Amino acid sequence: MNRHRSASPGRALRRSCAACALLAAPAPGLAQTATALPPIPVETAPVETETPSTATTETVPAEAVRAKAATTDDTARLLGDLPGVSLYTGGGLSSLPVIRGLGDDRIKTLVDGVPIGSSCPNHMNPALSYLAPSAVGRAELIAGITPVSAGGDSIAGTIRVDPKAPVFAATGEGIHLGGQVSTVFRSNASALTNAGEASVATEDVSLGVSLNRAEAGNYQDGNGRVIQASKYKSYGGDATLAFRGDGDQLVLRAGGTYTPYEGFPNQAMDLTYNRSTHASARYQGDFAWGSLDGQVYGLDIRHKMNFLFGRSNAAVGAGMPMLSQARQFGYAVKAEIPLGLDDTLRVGNEFDRFTLDEWWPATMTMTSAMGPGTFQNIAGGERNRIGTYGEWERAWTPRWTTLFGLRNDTVVTDSGPVQGYNWASGTSYHYREDAAAFNARDRTRVDLNLDLTALARYQLSDTATGEAGYARKTRSPNLYERYAWSTGSMASSMIGWFGDYNGYVGNVDLKPEVANTLSATADWHDPGAKVWQVKLTPYYTYIEDYIGADRITSLNGHAVTGTVLRFANHDAQMFGVDLSGRTLLARDTGLGDFGLGGKIGWVRGWQVNDGRNLYHLMPVNGQLTLDQRLGGWSSALEIRAVAGKTQLDTTRNEPTTPGYALVNLRAAYDWEAVTLSFGIENLFNKQYYEPLGGVDYKDARYAGQTMTTPYPALAGMGRSFDAGVTIKF
């Protein structure tokens, strides 16, 4: 095969069209939210097979990743500044991202190209928890009209977070040695984060290692009250071996994470053990006909839930252990083929196999209902997906570009026979009856999912670009939505990733969700897109067979604190708007350069058949950031405001939350080999409640609250003084 160092002439010319160049330009200002990280800085690095950019593609720049990593151990929070993004509050390492009101499994989340499945009924170990913020090299989000090459089996968009790229020696450098160590301390919860990385490389071979550790105690809210069971500890590490040739690159990675504990104040349980090991190999190459990108991966996860010590019932006997094991294997291969000067074809094929077993050992010390046998929640669960797609991008003129894509994902799920604790037949637990009914069913389901994307982009002038499109996106249910089988109060209350202390029961007959989205983006900017920019994106989505939840009964006989619900299909519709902008206020003043950026988001949604509000939708929210830079000094003043949450799903006991505004300060000074960072989060120690934070179950129970009183909303973190240092060598 004829391999070469750069992209083909047709591909290079296509990329030089004015419209594409305009959309790929960095956002203006000092802390851009749409600036891509630089490519691998080596002359013979292969050109990566691209996912086409859309108007809603946002890439967190390296500077923003470093700044946010000094304030959090939760990688999902690196994305929180992007338009349309909000977060379900979980543990200190495990928030669940939401894009335009659709979160968790409705988003295609790729960590180093791997779509990691959740192996916990409360999703305590989501995909982004397996890569520490300090190890992130690139974080990218595509919202709404998502190209089919960016992933299937999702309806909200795609998040891709990659580790840092391999480091190679510069031409003529010989042996390259380098690395860095960093430590960050945050006063609230006495959080301490340590990270280090080192590499040795020639021009063609690179060996790198990275290690990280994070630990925090229970945090305090704005009133100084300790939030029980919010502490955590985690370790992680990776080793990377990379080879490059004339237009080729092969990257081998292996590593793992270990989390001995992570508290979840809005859940009935805590994470008391999570260990993962992973390995992957990725090849990228340029050829005369185009470029090729292929990856194979494997993952093993062992997970355990129980009660953390310090809770009122944590010391009762052996607690209530719940164990799970998941294995995942798959591959993805894609090619980008220029078809002349104006056309590009992208084709790809993916396979992913996810298996899950979850069992709850008998624990007669808690209650006689939890024994004498083992409760099998998911037995031999399988979720196998194979996807194939084709995508055509054409530059009709230097100003006019279209993108069309078609994708099929076949998803096959299954579960083996289950059992309860084999006790309490005929009582409110119904373990025997529920298990018998589940085991008697045909549990194999085959979903043939079809995705379609049609997108048009037009550059109206040097200062205005428009984009509009339609996408049909499909997602099959996860294993818990289909196969969590017990209607008993205790067992069902262990299922659910919403932090609401409701009980959830699966539904074998669930259909895949099909989202039909219309969206348009108007982008105004200066001719070079370096001084100012404003983006406005209205959108509308109609979701056929949206997976909501229908009430079965009250939880433990107390409907005011919890409800047993069964996952069920309902048609739903959503609409909203995202507005973002940025401007360079002043350049080369005596105090440096100043920039201003901000965003506003609003979304509404309801079920079509009964008008019920969709669950966990963020109210109107906005953010404003003033940046300053002078030489090695940089600083930022951030104001985040959220309206009160009054649009509620009352069937699921969703709590109201008042509006609030938070002020954060950050600063850093960068020498050649040393960077110092400082910050104050929640400057005025505001008492606030995240609208998607769920209920404060742990503190209410710790204080002896009965189930006859509604659980309050979970309070956010109070003021924290942060300081960090990074030393490069």
UniProtKB/TrEMBL annotation:
The keyword Transport applies. Residues 1-31 form the signal peptide. InterPro entries: Beta-barrel_TonB, Beta-barrel_TonB_sf, Plug_dom, Plug_dom_sf, TonB-dep_rcpt-like. Gene3D superfamilies: TonB-dependent receptor, beta-barrel domain, TonB-dependent receptor, plug domain. SUPFAM superfamilies: Porins (SSF56935). The keyword Amino-acid biosynthesis does not apply. It comes from the Bacteria. PROSITE patterns: TONB_DEPENDENT_REC_3. Belongs to the TonB-dependent receptor family. This is TonB-dependent receptor. It comes from Phaeospirillum tilakii.
